[in-house]
Structures are given as structure tokens and as C-alpha cells.
Design goal:
Strand content: 35-45%
Order of helices and strands: EHHEEEEHEEEEEEEEHEEHEEEE
InterPro entries: LysM, LysM_dom_sf, NAGPA
Number of strands: 19
Largest sheet: 7 strands, antiparallel
Number of domains: 2
Organism: Deinococcus cellulosilyticus (strain DSM 18568 / NBRC 106333 / KACC 11606 / 5516J-15)
Protein name: LysM domain-containing protein
Domain LysM: 4-47
Shape: globular
Number of helices: 5
Length: 284
């Protein structure tokens, strides 16, 4: 379809324009040579009828991408998603730690994400608001840096296999562990039982901005963030629609945030204990 022109109206955003013309925000910025998300009333933008590209995940041969982003509505909810192919030899996921270390006041996500070879970043798990110490176990480069009471975790082995599972006695053999939760999808089924998993804070199961991580399989991982306030069940249904079989929450509310290629997609309203980074290494 040939490109056409759209005149920006008061109240428009790149997101709303991209949804109206069925293209991604990144493509809209690229064809208009925009370096930021700033637009103004009366500005003429080139638009295209090309639909939002879907990430297709064939079972055989292996996944054709390393890291990809999608920004679209899922079940009527605006969702930003980072799709990660752990089978790709250059891909790595790792916690993003403040320069001063854990427990020294935290850091904004944009500062945590200032690392070489980083493609994407998202906020991490829960933390104590005064000490900034993670509320669950945290393993970084095979070393356990924090211990907590949270019973579920995303774990990655040195050979880049991912699991979402219950806490175990020792994390020996795991390169990265981020304890967070609760489950919203387990083995392909919606599971909303935060009290059973030990959560007592009503903010966990209330309506809030959300970030989550899910596995389609042990080599295909999806991080999502939505700026819209959601319930646990709504997060689970969105992730099931995206084919995730096991899903746990990351921290949400004022912590929810995401960065894609050095650009803040969703900005957290506060400093974080740690973030999660997706790296594309130049050399293996």
C-alpha cells in the first residue's frame, strides 16, 4: 500500500497514530526520521497501511530472530512486549545492578540500562522501599546476591535454558535467578492464587500498571509492560493470548517500565533496586 500523509491533531500521540494506521511506532518514527516521540499539532506525518509485524515462532527450524519488540493492543489493552530467542547464541539475559550495588538507594531504569550491547530492559522484581534490597532471591553471573521469601522465580542456566518454577534449596548451576511472582499462568492455565503463594499486600492483586515475564517454551521468553492498570487475571489472559505457558509478575505500579534500543517506552515513576537486561553480544 502506498504511503499517505496524516496531519497531527491536538491530543494525538505516536502510539494513537500508529494504532489508527496499523503500523508500529518504530516504523512511524523511521519513515518520518523522528529521533524522539515528540510531535506537534499540525505536523504532517507519512503513514503506511502496512500492518504491525507479528513475531512468528516456528517449531522447526529454530526461531529466526534474536530479540524483537511488538507494540500493539492485546485483548483491547496496549501492550509493549520484548520477545527473546534464547536459542540464539548472541542473546543473554542478566540483572541490571546499580553502580553502587544493591541496597544503596536504587537507580532509575534509564541509568541501569546504560550498558554496552544492551537491546532492551525492563523493571525487575519486588524490593524493600527503604533498603532497596530485593524481596526475593537474586543470582547474578552465578553468584547469589540476595535472599528472600518469594517462592517462584525465573531462572536461566549457563547454556541459556529458562524455567519458571518454585524456589529450590540451592541455585547452583544457574547463571541468573530472579525470584518474583505470583503466578498468573501455570502450565497453560490461568492461576490467580496470590495468598496461597504467600502474598499479603493487597497492591499485588489490585488493579495497577503491570510488568510480567512468560515462557512459550524454555528457549522463547516474553517480557511485557502495559501502561494500563490491569488485574492479575487480565495479565494472565493477555499472556495466554501471546502463547505463553508459564507467567509470573514482575514488580508493577510505579516500578513498571521498559526500554527498547535506548528509548524509554514506559517510564517507571521511581528508582528501582535492579532491572533486567536483554543483551545481543557482538561476539560469542
Amino acid at each position: 500500500m502506498a504511503a499517505s500523509t496524516y496531519t497531527v491533531k491536538r491530543g494525538d500521540t505516536l502510539w494513537s497514530i500508529s494504532q489508527k494506521h496499523k503500523i508500529t511506532v518504530d516504523r512511524l518514527k523511521a519513515i518520518n526520521h523522528l529521533k524522539s516521540n515528540t510531535i506537534y499539532s499540525g505536523q504532517k506525518l507519512k503513514v503506511s497501511g502496512k500492518p504491525v509485524q507479528k513475531v512468528v515462532v516456528p517449531r522447526n527450524p529454530p526461531l529466526p530472530f534474536a530479540v524483537a519488540m511488538s507494540s500493539k493492543k492485546v485483548l483491547g489493552v496496549p501492550v509493549y512486549a520484548i520477545h527473546v530467542n534464547l536459542a540464539h547464541p548472541r542473546v543473554k539475559i542478566s540483572p541490571l545492578l546499580p553502580t553502587a550495588g544493591l541496597g544503596h538507594g536504587g537507580a532509575r531504569l534509564r541509568y541501569l540500562a546504560q550498558q554496552p550491547e544492551l537491546v532492551a530492559a525492563i523493571n525487575g522484581g519486588y524490593f524493600h522501599p527503604q533498603s532497596y534490597i530485593p524481596a526475593g532471591d537474586l543470582v547474578f553471573q552465578g553468584r547469589q546476591l540476595a535472599s528472600g521469601r518469594i517462592q517462584t522465580a525465573l531462572s536461566l542456566t549457563a547454556d541459556n535454558k529458562a524455567r519458571i518454577h518454585d524456589r529450590i534449596g540451592s541455585w547452583k548451576g544457574y547463571e541468573t535467578v530472579i525470584a518474583t511472582g505470583p503466578h498468573v499462568v501455570r502450565s497453560g492455565r490461568l492461576v490467580i492464587q496470590p495468598r496461597v503463594e504467600g502474598y499479603r499486600d493487597p497492591a499485588v492483586w489490585g488493579r495497577a500498571k503491570r510488568s510480567a515475564v512468560g515462557l512459550v517454551n524454555n528457549e522463547y521468553l516474553i517480557f511485557i509492560t502495559s501502561p494500563q492498570a490491569l488485574t492479575l487475571a487480565e495479565v494472565g489472559k493477555i499472556m495466554m493470548k501471546m502463547k505463553a505457558k508459564d507467567v509470573i509478575l514482575l514488580d508493577g505500579g510505579s516500578s513498571a517500565g521498559m526500554i527498547w534500543e535506548k528509548r524509554l517506552v514506559v517510564q517507571p515513576a521511581r528508582a528501582l533496586s535492579f532491572g533486567i537486561g536483554v543483551f545481543l553480544r557482538r561476539k560469542v
